[in-house]
Write a structure and sequence with these properties.
By secondary structure, the chain is an alpha/beta fold. The chain has 3 domains: about 280 residues, no CATH class; about 100 residues, no CATH class; about 80 residues, Winged helix-like DNA-binding domain superfamily/Winged helix DNA-binding domain (Arc Repressor Mutant, subunit A), CATH 1.10.10. The chain is built from 21 helices and 8 strands. The chain has a 5-stranded parallel sheet with strand order 2-3-4-1-5, sandwiched between helices. A 3-stranded antiparallel sheet has the order 6-8-7. β3, α12 and β4 form a beta-alpha-beta unit. The protein is globular. The two termini are about 40 Å apart. About 35% of the residues are buried.
Length: about 500
């Protein structure tokens, strides 16, 4: 029998990619959630905004969609801000400690990204190097000063690695490109940028104003004189090239090896900027933060707390209807309109709608996890039916097999094995402290510590109160619930090694 893709006449799999950066056509089938308009409006202004969301909830998809729309509007002749992505923090973290990250370091990284984006944009213009010849002397001085202070001081090898990453991202955003961009001739682009940089340096080697301009940005020891001044100069430079400001997109804060382990680590990386409100109030510059929702607690309580009430923010929230629409949009796009809904792949629409609802619940309402789940359904379908000759729709068994396989594949990468073992041994979806004591034969404090660890891992949550046993009018007990349906399915359907 043909594969899942060929059986249903898909151009390629609707569920193959889980990462928004790998989906160049995402605007063609993206379903716009309510918060998208807020993020888009704030980016276009530009003004500062924080979007909180769970991992896999669509934060990066929102960022990329907004970036691409702004670049499209720019190519259509509209006056928009320069789009600058800050998604790689290796220069800040690879060689140092997370605790040593400062606002100066983050501003230097932003300045590097701004200069890099502008140079790449210049290289995309048909005029190339000649494009900068029309600038006034003070404008060229500003470009060179910022380039020498924040871009050219990075070793050439580091610049080339960064440019390669940036070019691949911008290649997806820029729909109208010159010959070398269309043909992805990276070496030519790098050579052109090198010529621009060295040409500027040579042309202005004797410019008297250059030293003064650089000294207004950096002290003799290389420290930033004023973060607000540097950000204002970057905005000024963006306007030299026809943009009306800068919109900075900060994403993937929790994806570096030094930050991915905990919300606290991720919060430490961006705290130096978020704690200085004046850095987010520079006219013409807007920060767009796309942050893990578990960071929010760190930013509102404890040593990393900030004035969140002074920063516009919203949260990703997906409803079942939106997620169903997302799945249907993918199926329709990848079938070139031949299939309108995911349920049409089933031999019975009623049970398909029910199973799709179960899948949405199992994915904890995460677009990424939902796509991953249906990718597993399609792969299990191929594995089970590849030797059969007849055409076959998805059955209830196919849905269940895919969901079981998805849970057994991903759950161990989400939770520590010890926590999952304890959840299975407890064998309760709703419980109180005394039931944990009984299940593990431990003291009340021991049970409390165990529950705290389960909460911290995101496996359980406090969901209510339970009256004291015996009807004696004692103090009610805190009642907890397992909130991840994947853990419940793991236990109920015995999707684990009995030895755990």
């Amino acid at each position: 029998m043909p594969s899942f893709e060929k059986t249903f006449a898909f151009n390629s799999s609707p569920f193959e990619q889980y990462v928004a950066e790998n989906e160049p056509d995402i605007l063609s089938y993206a379903v716009v959630p309510p918060y998208y308009d807020v993020a888009k409006r704030r980016a276009a202004t530009p003004s500062t905004h924080i979007l909180f969301g769970a991992r896999g909830s669509g934060k990066s998809a929102t960022r990329l969609s907004t970036e691409r729309e702004l670049w499209k509007r720019h190519s259509d002749g509209e006056h928009v801000p320069l789009v600058v992505s800050m998604v790689n923090f290796s220069r800040l973290l690879d060689g140092g400690r997370l605790e040593d990250v400062t606002s100066d370091g983050l501003i230097k990284e932003l300045a590097f990204c701004v200069i890099e984006t502008l140079l790449l944009w210049i290289s995309d213009q048909d005029e190339g190097y000649d494009f900068i010849e029309i600038l006034q002397p003070d404008e060229l001085t500003l470009l060179l000063a910022l380039s020498k202070a924040f871009y050219l001081q990075v070793p050439e090898t580091g610049r080339q690695i960064s440019q390669d990453v940036a070019m691949r991202l911008l290649h997806q955003n820029w729909r109208s490109q010159t010959r070398i961009w269309i043909n992805k001739k990276w070496s030519e682009i790098l050579h052109l940028i090198a010529n621009i940089s060295s040409g500027l340096a040579q042309k202005h080697a004797d410019t008297k104003d250059l030293t003064g301009e650089i000294s207004s940005l950096l002290t003799s020891k290389g420290n930033i004189t004023s973060g607000v001044t540097v950000l204002s100069k970057l905005v000024e430079l963006s306007r030299v090239f026809g943009f009306h400001g800068i919109s900075v997109f900060v994403d993937k804060v929790d994806e570096h090896p030094k930050t991915q382990a905990s919300p606290e680590s991720s919060s430490k990386l961006i705290f130096p900027i978020l704690s200085h409100i004046q850095l987010m109030e520079v006219e013409g510059l807007g920060w767009q933060f796309f942050l893990w929702d578990r960071i929010r607690t760190c930013l509102t309580h404890g040593p990393l707390a900030i004035r969140l009430d002074k920063i516009a923010h919203s949260e990703v929230s997906w409803t079942e209807d939106f997620l169903r629409a997302m799945l249907d949009a993918r199926v329709k796009f990848f079938s070139a309109g031949r299939i309108e809904k995911l349920s049409e792949l089933s031999d019975g629409n009623y049970h398909a709608d029910t199973k799709i609802g179960e899948a949405i619940d199992l994915s904890v309402f995460s677009p990424r996890e939902l796509i991953r789940l249906f990718d597993t359904v399609s792969r299990e379908y191929d594995s089970k039916h590849s030797s059969k000759s007849e055409m076959r729709f998805l059955s209830i068994e196919d849905f269940d097999a895919g969901m079981d396989k998805y849970v057994s594949d991903v759950i161990w990468s989400i939770y520590d094995k010890r926590i999952l073992s304890q959840m299975i041994r407890l064998d309760r979806e709703i419980f109180v402290n005394s039931e944990v004591q009984k299940a593990f034969k431990i003291s009340p404090p021991g049970a409390t510590n165990r529950i705290v660890k389960w909460e911290a891992a995101g496996a359980v949550a406090l969901t209510g109160k339970r009256d004291a046993e015996g009807g004696g009018g004692g103090k009610p007990s805190n009642e907890y619930s397992v909130i991840d349906p994947r853990i419940i399915r793991l236990a109920k359907r015995n999707l684990y090694d009995k030895k755990i």
